[in-house]
Amino acid sequence: MTNEDLTPSELRVLVAVESRHGFSAAAVELGLTQSAVSHAVRAAERKMGTVLFRRGRNGARPTAAGAAAVGHARRILRLMDVMKAETHAASAGETTGTIRVAAFRSAAFHLLPIVLARFARRYPKVTVDVRIVPELGRGIAGEVLDGRADLGIATLPSRVDGLVGRDLFAEPYVLAYPAGHPCPRSLPMIDWHENCSAETRLWLARQAWIPPGDIQVEDDGVVVSMVGYGLGAAIVPRLTLVDAPPKVAMEKLGEDPPMRHVGYVATSEMLGSAVVRDLVGELRAHCAERFAAVG
Q1: pLDDT digits (tens, 9 = 90+) for 93-129
Q2: Residue 10, class by beta-carbon neighbours within 10 Å (0-12 exposed, 13-18 middle, 19+ buried)?
């Protein structure tokens, strides 16, 4: 390490200032004085050759350069944690530690439980933290890129520089409607917000029978509940309707429906971790079994 390299302490300060939105709160979190935090940020800015935080009455906010630096800092610190855990595993023959997974709601509900149960049998002392992240804007890929998650279960394509993305399965969108309704396509449409492919948006735009959304929501679980209460119909991925109540029925969208492609995203460095690779292996195996069965 040269004098121009950021130290682990400086990396931790950058992350704390960004997450706490200020120097004072970061100092409390890290058990440092505010002057020590200010000194560390100034040192990092000098080494990086740019301003990383805008200071003001309302605290500190990262500049564009600062946001990029904090994302790298989180990932570097995380790799240091992984290095310690895997060094311990090689020495003691026992793998410990934590893997942080970000996933959209239906994947967290319907894919991860079986996968994590299998994984836990192989790695009983590894904790997997799961956080549900909406697939909106930068979505799950953004969480991984920013160093807040080690592995993401995301809607593809998520082509983000610095990340590796691989397909797990593809599923059709279907029409969900109140069971027993004689003409589901005549119902008001419940619209929900989700990142989707350009092909799906094009397909939806070509469908003259789809009215503008009368109800707007941000969660597909809420959509299913509203459909069940007869408030309208909705176009959702098939996985959303797993374990839907009997009062919610499903109709195919023709012979060539739009498809949602689901995969995992991670940094290449994190995929170098044996335990992360094994979790991905369990995920791939389960998806191959499950979606081969349903076609």
Answers
A1: 888 899 999 999 999 999 999 999 999 999 999 999 9
A2: middle
